[in-house]
Amino acid sequence: MYSLLIQSIDGFSWKPSFVLQKEPNLYVAIELDGTRTHQTHTINRAAVPKWNDVFTLSPDRLSSRLSLHLYHKTSVPFNLKNDSCLATVDIDIGTLSERCGTLGTSEKTTTLELIKKDTKVKSAGTLSVRLAAISIVQAGRLEIVGAQTDIESIGFSSGAGRVMEAADTIVKVQSKGGDLASSLDVLISKIDIIVRVGDKLTKIHPYANLAWKVLMSMYKAVKQQQQTDEKIVELVRTMVTTYSFVEDIESLPKKIKGLEDTCLAIVKQTVECAIFIREYTGKGFGDRLVAQALSDGVHQQIDDLSAALNALKQSFDCRLAIHAAFVSAKIFEHVQILVDSNTLRALKPVDMNAFHRALCLAGTRVDILNFIQEWLTMPSDSGNILWLYGVAGSGKSTISTTVSEYFRDLQRLGAFLFFTRTDRAASSPSAVIRTIAYQLASSNPLIRAAISKAINQDPKVTTATSRTQFEKLLLGPLNAAQIHLNGPVIVILDALDECGDPESRRDLVSLLANEFYSLPPMFRFLITSRPDSDIAGDFKHRSRIIKMHLEISITTDIRLYIRSRMDDIRKRHELEDGWPGEDVICTLTEYSDGLFIWASTATKFVDGHRPNQKLESLMMRNARLGFNLDQLFEVALRGSGSWDDPDFALDAQAVLAAIVLGEVSMTAEMIDALFNLQKDRASKHTLNALGCVVQWSPGKVARTLHASFGDYLTDPQRSAGQPWHLDVVTHSYALTLGCFRILKNELRFNICRLKDSYVTNSDVPNLSALADTYISSQLSYACQFWASHLTKTNHEQSIQEELLQFLRNQFLMWLEVVSIQLSRFQSHRKTREKVESWYLFDPQHVLGLVLRSIPDGASSELRNLTQDCLSFIRVFGHLILEAAPHIYLSALAMTPEDSLVRREYLQHFEVIMITAGGSHYWEDYVLHHRPFTRVYSLALSPDGSYIVSGSSNCTLCIWDAETLEPLGESHHHHDSWVSSVAFSPDGSCIVSGSGDCTLCMWDAETLEPLGEPLCGHNNSVLSVAFSPDGTRILSGSRDCTLRIWDAKTLQPLGEPLCGHDYGVLTAAFSPDSSHIVSGSEKNTLCIWDANTGQLLGKRCCDQEGVITSVAFSPNGSCIVSGSSDSTVCIWDAETQQLLGKLHGHEDGVSSVAFSPDGNHIVSGSWDCTLCIWDVETRQPLGGLLRGHKDRVLSVAFSLDGTHIVSGSSDGTLHIWDMEAQSNGYYSSLFFRLSLICINRKRITKSTDTASAAWKILLFVFFASFFGPRNVQIWCLVAGS
């Protein structure tokens, strides 16, 4: 902290005016980083003003900007103008420190040249100032002196201030002026004593330090409020009285050592009282001015706070170290809201258990902890995020845990999330927003009510994009609740660099950097991480994020830590007094090179069998080689066991591989099962031997002490050649074999012994208890992660054989466990914690990864069976997740006759047999839906969740992209067929073009029209598109023109683009929004400048007929066009040269699209098929995709490129799978059935030719039947 002396001005002069003929009334206003903090008193009519005012400053950094403004205070009666700024000077704190000698042994006054800001000033002159470094105690005394002076000068009152007692207030102003100031003076001086003797009471000191700082903030606020309620004065007096024990601390600190907990409780309560008073006086996070009498609720709260302090004081006076209830100053209105706990369960938060996390040793990292705790507690205009970054092992996580426990004690901790690479499932970026929301809701009933309301309004928000989750789960609810909240709410995110990988956390980091500042100011964030490039790139240049580089620790802290740990070792092993000696401690401190992880690992290594010998080997090794972290790991591992013994080396490698390469943390029993370790080689023995580098205790999961240890073991540059080096491929092979062994030995039909096969999982009584009984931890792990380990192997022949046997024999039983575990996750919080890592599990995604990982040389039998299993999951996925028994009863029964899954498994189970009409093959597509009208156009939303279709009946419809269920009714706003539709880049709007010559803008959520139709074309609008930057809309028309529209105002921009001689059928923007490509009815391709509308190139194509569709490649280098002559052409976007012509369709090509990665093109044709093309080879991938019964009119890729959507004249939408390897062996639309089992009572028979959707056994089946409106229900009970 600093003191700033504003002394005087020399050389100032100004021009008197007609009204102001005398000298000005001058004062200096002080700003720090743009925020006004102080101002001097005003000197009236002085030619050479001298203030000699001293202020305290607390800059965040030496680069903080100090601005000093010279003002004239107007004295003209009724002048409505503000005071005039006459001159100013800016300088950073570091530069001023150097000029004043602040960092040296002597301090001096310096002069700063003022710059004129007002024409009345002749000469601004120079301002004399002095900046001096001061202690926190000196700063407090300066504040108290200044406050007392101010109070005396303004007659400050601590009167009651009630309106009805206004007559008495004047008397109280005169008689009680200064009561509050004097009370605060006494209180701060006594807390000052605690700060000074804090080294002897290390448990109390941090809280006393914060109490002092908060009170100082409150003190300045209180002095500005002229009528503070009498109850506040009494509360301060109670605080002063309670601190009477301080005299004992100062004289005989040891007297109260036994009552340290009581003293700690008093200091904590003082912090809470200080925060309450600060909020009451309107200078806290709420920035409210309380100018009216307090409500009865707040009166009662003050009484409760006073009572709690009095109880603690009485406890201390009686020398009784009793537990006193902590009374919080959080103000909650009486809100009669019953929040259904199921609402918050929908957030699916990750469980964060900090039980094993270490805290800072008392007396270490004091300056850092004080700064962080003060910054998080005090209001600030500079931002609400503090980013603490530093190298691995510097102690970031320990600091964050210590800070979290500090604010947990104060009941100010809103959320604490910590991430680790050893638990990838719990460290997924996709769960962060939901987990923050859940923890905040759990910490405060008002926040809980607001977040629950948001979930009820939009139940699907928990699966929305990260930005939508932020806006609806945090921004909206917290803004709604902030008026009822007082003081800081602390949120801590530790080890952000271990939250997923740079790609998966990209959106999260962007939100933290660019959006979290918009949350209410009382929500304060501490984020720790290594300075990884993706995080640093977003954080370092954000002015709203305070950056704090955690340097490697100072020698004093490391020495204190090592000394404490060695003393513990000495006592535990009954070594001689003084062991190991101060010289050894100093040497180890030097070896640590400032890294706490080095000190922690070294002392754990010594704390084993024969500590003296281990210490000696550590000292000798370091003396010879130096003292870096890798060498310490080598010493620690070398001393853990005999690595020359093949059995020990094999077991230790297995244990380390399980810990480092495992997808979640495992118990010793899980490790034994994975690596088939028998009792005499059980992993618990190895875990005990590795105790200096591994954290484990019986019944608990095993973890590395620090992420850097796993990095060391797997990095060939650091540990190659050592017996403990972990080759990822080799050990992934072992983990894969272990998973398959567990699956083979433990999977069973009806594994949970369910008694009724006709109920859904959610209706099974005690399903969770049954699962705990029959599904072991190792089986749950193997079911979830076998594929993850398999894809990291080289697919050795033995792995391929194991995979084939698994798919032949355990595939359906694996799905049974998947169904049960996912159902458990959906149930309730207590159950969810046991299956937390299942949240992101998707069996379809898993099989897709496996299929793609199979090498080209693998057997066709393996590839075909894997593909068949994947098709089984795609078609019956919803049924599998709803009811485990119906994997066998219904899904297997409905499987096509030539399915490999059917051939392998049907012989082992009794199921309903399809006697006629069943399908012979799996369809290439996953789903279809019939909207019963001709689908002319469709588009996928940017997040891939929704599809919009435009139809021949003049309507638009929104569909769920996963289930293809319509979301609401079709909407009619056009008077003719809807020819083209497009989503805006942010997904909030839809634009449509129609045969009625107009465009319409729609709200994507409600599908309500936004404004009137856009009129400007003279013929049918055949193509519409949004620019990628979302600012413009493009339309192409049969009137031979294109138009560009402002997406916000819906007004045309400039004149129509004229250049085509015939109708424009298709148009598209380039990815950077700078160019437009369009195609016409007479095979003409045009390129336009999107900003000026200038025609840049025109080409009459080699294609015959009309150009029906065009699209840019994602990188903008190529253009693809489809033509009625059945060809697809690829063009160079810059030169318009033809790069290739693709032949494969038998009729005209109606629609083309690039895949998101630019490697593939899909084309839809009037021959009722689709074709997927390889851009590089210009060849089709497989055969034509057949399924539609009429012309394909529109195609589009999904956002991730794994699926294709198509719309047809036959009135159906189809979703096709890019991963399907079948070559078009389509037979019919799903199932042609004559007999299907509904439940144990009914059978349905139908011969309807229309495609009908039936919800059967909780699963939507699509069936094509024969005969008009002929549905029969057969009752098995009655036999009729």
Automatic annotation (TrEMBL):
CDD domains: C2, WD40. PROSITE patterns: C2, NACHT, WD_REPEATS_1, WD_REPEATS_2, WD_REPEATS_REGION. Residues 1-106 form the C2 domain. The keyword Repeat applies. Keywords: Repeat, WD repeat. The keyword Cell membrane does not apply. Residues 384-533 form the NACHT domain. Coiled coil: none annotated. WD repeats lie at residues 935-969, 971-1012, 1014-1055, 1057-1098, 1107-1141, 1142-1183, 1185-1219. This is WD40 repeat-like protein. It comes from Mycena albidolilacea. The lineage of its organism: Eukaryota, Fungi, Dikarya, Basidiomycota, Agaricomycotina.
